[in-house]
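Backbone-to-sequence.
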């Protein structure tokens, strides 16, 4: 069968690539086109547009890049129409993907599946009307979403979380058992304990968060600070933020290895918070935004959930500290980081809470379960047409 996948950021590229591999295992004749990234291309997809030209978030960036966004939508719709896939699989990225779903429902008879659902449980719950109308099947990666969608009279299938797969695959590599000296030598790092900084996968996130993260770590002189370079960000972009009075390294494409050799991490909210928990590295979740007090007010008014990190959302309680908007100051980050360093007051409790979250997510194999469920759904739909 022919599969068309759309992902708009690095995490979607990762999960999309693993789904593609699983689909090919179930369907050896599988053929892929995609809007995504290097990983999806590496998994055998013909790349129509890279996510680095799609990943805009926030009102101002979206407004200033509106021409590019609309051009991407036109290109995507035309490409789908020309290629005529058996199914279009949307991966998160709801601002773009729900528009594509609306178009396909109105103009074609191509089935639309959603993998990694829009987070309407956090805000914009009204989008459920579009999902009911335009999305033929929803495959969820968060266990609480099944009950949530059921309350909204929509069926979602929980297939497990692909982050569990990714971390489990890493645990089966030789790199997982390497010692710290091997990692340090490969990346020309001194032999010192590490604090990892995961400042996001978009330039805007890095620009907003990395300077405060760096400032917050200045007093941890017994540790070296290492930045996890995001795959879609040019190496030179990080250079403008690096301090002149101390060495801070940037390691690209090795986030799991970096985390496993770190004592603690500062992590911008997103998939990385869950991956950090699965690797059992204590963390502080940091998400600065401009106009912090206003954003904090709007967050209390508009968001339907108490938390922004996946770790806390799954646990339905505070496992990791979240410093968001005006709460994210260098002083607050430093104090909370100190609490989770070795010997810190909250470190052991966080590790115990991680184990509870890991148990909630279940076993690895999400990509394979999703692939099997999607193919079964397609076969059922096709059989229904022929009756």
């Amino acid at each position: 069968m022919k599969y068309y996948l759309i992902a708009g950021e690095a995490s979607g590229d990762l999960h999309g690539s693993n789904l593609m591999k699983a689909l090919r295992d179930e369907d050896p004749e599988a053929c892929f086109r995609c809007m995504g990234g290097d990983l999806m291309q590496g998994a055998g997809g013909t790349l129509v547009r890279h996510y680095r030209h799609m990943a805009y978030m926030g009102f101002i960036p979206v407004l200033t890049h509106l021409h590019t966004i609309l051009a991407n939508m036109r290109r995507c719709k035309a490409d789908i129409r020309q290629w005529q896939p058996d199914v279009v699989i949307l991966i998160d990225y709801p601002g773009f993907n729900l528009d594509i779903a609306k178009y396909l429902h109105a103009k074609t008879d191509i089935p639309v599946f959603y993998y990694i659902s829009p987070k309407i449980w956090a805000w914009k719950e009204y989008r459920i009307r579009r999902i009911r109308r335009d999305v033929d099947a929803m495959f969820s990666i968060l266990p609480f979403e099944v009950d949530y969608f059921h309350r909204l009279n929509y069926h979602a299938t929980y297939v497990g979380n692909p982050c569990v797969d990714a971390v489990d695959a890493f645990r089966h590599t030789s790199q997982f058992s390497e010692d710290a000296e091997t990692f340090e030598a490969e990346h020309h790092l001194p032999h010192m304990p590490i604090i990892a900084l995961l400042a996001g996968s978009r330039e805007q996130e890095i620009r907003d968060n990395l300077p405060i993260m760096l400032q917050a770590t200045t007093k941890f002189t017994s540790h070296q600070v290492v930045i996890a370079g995001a795959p879609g960000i040019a190496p030179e972009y990080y250079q403008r933020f690096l301090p002149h009075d101390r060495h801070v390294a940037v390691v690209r494409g090795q986030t799991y290895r970096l985390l496993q050799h770190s004592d603690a991490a500062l992590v911008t909210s997103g998939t990385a918070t869950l991956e950090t928990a699965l690797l059992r590295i204590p963390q502080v979740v940091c998400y600065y935004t401009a106009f912090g007090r206003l954003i904090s007010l709007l967050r209390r008014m508009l968001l339907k959930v108490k938390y922004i990190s996946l770790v806390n959302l799954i646990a339905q309680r505070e496992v990791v500290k979240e410093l968001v908007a005006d709460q994210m100051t260098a002083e607050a980050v430093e104090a909370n980081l100190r609490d989770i360093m070795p010997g810190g007051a909250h470190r052991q409790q966080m590790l115990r809470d991680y184990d509870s979250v890991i148990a909630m997510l279940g076993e690895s194999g999400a990509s394979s379960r999703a692939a099997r469920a999607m193919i079964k759904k397609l076969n059922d739909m096709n059989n229904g047409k022929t009756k």
